[in-house]
Amino acid sequence: MKILLVYPYFIDRRINEEDVSAIPMGLYYVGAMLLANGYAVEILNAWDLGTNPDRIYRILDDKRPDVIGFSILHANRWGGIDIARMVKKVNPQAHVVFGGVGATFLWEHFLQHFSEIDYVVRGEGETSFLELVRYLEKKETAAPDHIAGLAFRKEGRPCATEDREPAADLDSLPMPADYFTFQHLSLTRGCPSGCTFCGSPAFWKRRTRFHSVDYFISQLQRLVSRGIRFFFVSDDTFTLKPNRVIEICRRIIELKLDITWAAISRVDCVDGEMLAWMRRAGCTQISYGVESGSPKIRALYRKNISDADICRAFALTVRFGIMARAYFIYGAPQESDATIDESLDLMRRIRPLSAIFYILDLFPGTELYEQYKRRTGATDDIWLDRVEDILYYETDETLDKQRVLEFGRRLREGYFAMLPEFAAAIELEEDPALFPLHADFLSRLALTFSHGDYVANPAIGDRLPTAIRLFERALSYHPDHRAFWGLGLVYQQLQRWEDSVEILLRGIRHYAASADLRMALANSLMRLGRPLEAHEHLLPVGDHPRAMEMLVHCCRLLKDHEGEKTWLDRLKAAAQAKSP
């Protein structure tokens, strides 16, 4: 049987496409299970195909899968429904299977209202999907009542089999990296917390299972061997077992895996020893769910953390040179100007260097959604509307759209206005062994102010002065390539050409083979009318296409026609060698 696994598109556009563009890890695990058992499987990432149905039809017509499995997160359910309808038009005999957290909580709704959906895999999907494929392959006429964790129609009515027990040993699952290449990793499944806005408590039953260190490292090594150097560790709380995290970090260091990575944690699940190991092993960012500065609202979310926990975690994380990112949610029950003030006050104390702000949504499987249904008498039929979600304020008479949007505006503008102060107030651990990592951390942050995410944000003042201070502070710890290069570029933006030359020359003394430093230096030298010096500094990196272009320009300024022709010929030859 030919099997196609699909990650469908969302109907609403995202400002940050990386929020939705990555295939969920669960789909890779299902694919690995099928491949390990001899089935032909492909994965289609259709996150960006919402405006291109013709391409989807061509893919379906070309691949002609017998079984199509969809990873449904709820907000992409309409993309799944749309593509399922296309599947049935191309091949009415194909079997459409929905799975994932969104399908688990709405299995009855999907089967009752959408005839193009044949089966729903509920909960953890690897074994259930494999058993369903084997059942379909045999073309049995009896209903698949024997397959746990499945839902389907029986005598025209939706029905479900018994729940499937989650895999007791996660290491027994085939390793996705044996078959696929990706950047998202997980050490665990599940989360012990009971946050009311999250579907994890109902999906995983507040149980957490762990891969072994060997499994995690083996998967990491396979991906690194294919050139992946940055990873998202996607666990709800990666740091639940500090000793296991430290062992992972030790192994990364011992194996000399040259990687950087970001993780998610809780503010009450980190300590200094573990953070130091994480930083040495390449961790550059940890995201924490703060949610609100109001203890009253955090209690409504069942977010059992204190202000002291939050302040401690953010100070420790930054101290070891890791970006501490805060998640905030607004538009909650009992949200007011006073609770927003509390959030802004907490920001001043924890000084997050990155923050994400969300309006509170209601999703199936969450306690807040169940409360909403009990309060209003609503049913899952509300999801027949072509919407991705329901905003909480739409269900609360004490809130309205304009007021909630104003809450968001105050949080965002207040945060970004304070951000340069936060950057200036960074306190780092005075451990010489960490100094090169501190330089790396500060230069990364500086680049967000000079060339990255913060450049186009009008709410952030003093962007270039902040970048300069951070680059200079980075270099006070260690000669850092990014700091030399970034500071040279900032001086160029300010037309401080002599300062740019000076800092870039310093950088080249440490990184003589750097094409970036030499090309930036050549640019400043030519601005100062010194093309001969620019030419000399470009020669050691003359095999770089951009350097060749600059050498052509230098020769023209020097009226060196023979040199100009030589570099033009080399540039043309490089372009021909690169073209297929």
From TrEMBL:
Its cofactor is [4Fe-4S] cluster. The keyword RNA-binding does not apply. GO terms for molecular function: 4 iron, 4 sulfur cluster binding; catalytic activity; cobalamin binding; metal ion binding. CDD domains: Radical_SAM, radical_SAM_B12_BD. Pfam families: B12-binding, Radical_SAM. SMART domains: Elp3 (SM00729). Keywords: Iron, Iron-sulfur, Metal-binding, S-adenosyl-L-methionine. GO terms for cellular component: cytosol. Residues 8-143 form the B12-binding domain. Gene3D superfamilies: Cobalamin-binding domain, Tetratricopeptide repeat domain, tm_1862 like domain. Residues 177-410 form the Radical SAM core domain. The keyword Kinase does not apply. InterPro entries: BchE-like (IPR051198), Cobalamin-bd (IPR006158), Cobalamin-bd_sf (IPR036724), Elp3/MiaA/NifB-like_rSAM (IPR006638), Methyltransferase_Class_B (IPR034466), rSAM (IPR007197), rSAM_horseshoe (IPR023404), rSAM_sf (IPR058240). It comes from the Bacteria. This is Uncharacterized protein.
